[in-house]
Amino acid sequence: MLRCSVCGSTYDEAALPWRCACGAPLDWVIGAGVRTPDDLSGRPASLWRYREVLPCGNDDGCGPVSLGEGMTPLVRAAWDGAEILWKLDFLCPTGSYKDRGASVLMSRLRDLGVRDIIEDSSGNAGAAMAAYSARAGVRCRIFVPDYTSEGKCVQISSYGAELVRVAGSREDTTAAAERAAQTEGTYYASHNWSPYFAHGVKTLAYELVEELGGAVPDSVIVPAGQGSLVLGCDHAFSEMLASGRIAKRPRIYAVQAAHCAPLYRAFSDGSQEPATIEKHETIAEGISSALPVRGRQVLAAVRRSGGAVLTVDEDEIAPGCFRLARLGLYVEPTSSVVGAAVSRLLKTGAIRPDERTAAVLTGTGLKATDKILHLAERNEGGRPTHG
Ligand SMILES: [Zn+2]
Questions:
Q1: Choices 3.30.200.20, 3.40.50.1100, 3.40.640.10, 2.60.120.10: CATH for 74-96+197-382
Q2: How many Å apart are CA 132 and CA 110, to the nearest integer?
Q3: How far is the CA of 269 from the centre of ligand 1 (A)?
Q4: What is the dotted CATH code of the domain comprising 115-188?
Q5: What is the pTM of this model?
Q6: How remote is the CA of residue 4 from the centroid of ligand 1, in Å?
Q7: What is the mean pLDDT of the chain?
Q8: Percent of the chain's residues with pLDDT above 70
Q9: Better-scored residue on pLDDT, 147 or 187
């Protein structure tokens, strides 16, 4: 069953609504107290080991659309005097954590008989949806702004997806995708609107607890644009608390770029809704979302956790990127905001060195060579040396 996050109206999943008649996002409703078995040995080494808590994966006739996503390494490395648990989610099949959501979303859609989807994304989500559509044998059209870098377009179209370039802003691209999805026979599989996507993402938090031998981190630090990682962590920790698997809720710290921070502004102002902001260009393009469609839920989740939304400045992002690389962790600038955030949170005392802190690294640096080179050229300290 699907339920509206604002007015509470309920919908049958088979009717395939992508949002409520009132205009708000829909949530997939999980059964009360559902939990995964204590012993997961013999389960696949992918997020599908947690099938009991996923919208698709039980004995309901559907098999998962999987490329082995999830079960990413958790690596301990020192940072400003603390030992941080770095979750290497950039090691998913298409190079970002979005594969978690795409696997679960595509599995559910295939089970519901969807054969043709439309998505709009200028980056990692588009690549993930294209890859999992290929795996599922589903026709996929990805709408991107016409300024999207060639590298991303090549990855998306290599998977066999049809690329539709839209002139104008990112918001114009979304509007074009929504219009096209009104055609009979296709489904608007927007990862931001999807009631299933964040339930794929939540498996990251299930993994953290499993990898820590049943212990919970004191806090989890994630980049936040639309906020699907915040929602995923919130789903997982809420479910694990309700089912008695864990005894306390970790604090969630959501990191935005100061140049595009509608969630930070709202959090600071005590507002329930994302703030209206003027967006400036940021190197952290993956979290450059001026209009987070589930912003209300993201803000509530952060507050419920006792964490916070914080921002990092453009000149903090490059040092974070190269410091992570010096630890062997080559991630895109969007991911490296968590490095700067860990430093800030340690400095202010929001997190302590003796606490268990997990930080999620979301996207590989291999997809952002041009951006990282640009950062290196601007930053003497980070300039790569050759020979
Ligand atoms: Zn509604």
A1: 3.40.50.1100
A2: 11
A3: 25
A4: 3.40.50.1100
A5: 0.96
A6: 5
A7: 94
A8: 96
A9: 187
